[in-house]
Amino acid sequence: MNPLQHRFNPQVNKIAVSLIRQFDERVSNIPDILKLTLGEPDFDTPEEVKRAGIEAIEQNFSHYTGMAGLPEVREAACTFVEKKYNVHYDWQTEVLVTVGGTEAITATLLSILEPGDKVLLPTPIYSGYEPVITLAKAELIQMDTSQTDFVLTPDLLEATLEEHGDQVKAVILNYPSNPIGVTYTREEVKSLADVLKKYPVFVMCDEIYSELVYDETHTSIAEFIPNQTILINGLSKSHAMTGWRIGFLFGPKELIKEIVKVHQYLVTAASTISQKAAYAALTTSMNAGEEMKKEYQVRRDFVFKEVSRLGFEVAKPRGAFYIFAKIPTGYIQDSMEFCIDLAEKEQLAVIPGIAFGQAGEGYIRISYAASFEKLEEAMRRLDRYMNR
């Protein structure tokens, strides 16, 4: 045992590699495993975007950019969200180019949180927020939405804000959501904003799936409460660019001025080559997500129908590319045990709901970011398992 391991920041001992990654690694060595685990588009990055990246390499764009990112990328990002979501930002002072949405989340939370602060978030929810809150010595307060079809209601939000009072520093929202695919109508977003504007809290809104909304138009909460909102978005899901690691952080200039300090010491700046590709994504390939969305919708309808037929209870997703399904009575109810058993007996890997908080226990998350052929085979394997 290395004696230095006891000299780490004790907060590090309170976090772990996400259960999503732990489970994915655990089952990856099972022969013939079919994985519907990670939230990663199976499409290729658009050709125009790839060419822009190649040209950037050939033209030796291999040096640092400014901390906030290339001016043309920041301007294009502001234009993109203005045209798409009717939110307005000054590209010179109100946007940062980040290393994916993950770094945007980390830079934001480390900038605003102090020991003892409380952070509210609806659960089940993506597992990447809680560890950063823990590192900042703040406290996570979960708002269980499992009794309201996984929709955060204004009443629950206001009751939680009132209960915890001045200790609440921030509220985190994520929609369309991972792991459920829940999103909000314009009226629902406005109702949440009407509650939040009564309280002196930061609203960190992760809208990374905003281009993958079915049957309606995405509404950003930043449209209603811009002075409180730190808006996070990026190109990973909309343009199948997970590996390029480009995210965007928008907010009032007074807030961005502080967050850029933390951003600088975390990463200096985002990859210059990736930023050149991002410019193409935001301009010549602005609507790349539309074709992907059409295919995702076909896949969603298929998987939703199949898991419902097999007895799972599912809230039909209105965005993103996940099915969050309640394990039927009579089967293993511990979500981790269920998913391990499924992987070992039928070589099908899906994510246990406990990975998204206690409110997710008893559920599984199926990613339909996979080819239709793979999804058909996955449903055959699930059918065999449920009928054993």
UniProtKB/TrEMBL annotation:
Enzyme class: transferase
Enzyme Commission identifier(s): 2.6.1.-
Cofactor(s) this protein cannot do without: pyridoxal 5'-phosphate
InterPro entries: Aminotransferase_I/II_large, AspAT/PAT-like, NHTrfase_class1_PyrdxlP-BS, PyrdxlP-dep_Trfase, PyrdxlP-dep_Trfase_major, PyrdxlP-dep_Trfase_small
GO biological process: amino acid metabolic process
Keywords: Aminotransferase, Pyridoxal phosphate, Transferase
The keyword Transferase belongs to this UniProt entry's keyword annotation: yes
Ranges of residues in domain Aminotransferase class I/classII large: 32-382
Matches recorded under Pfam families: Aminotran_1_2
GO molecular function, one term: transaminase activity
UniProt family annotation: Belongs to the class-I pyridoxal-phosphate-dependent aminotransferase family.
Protein's name according to its UniProt entry: Aminotransferase
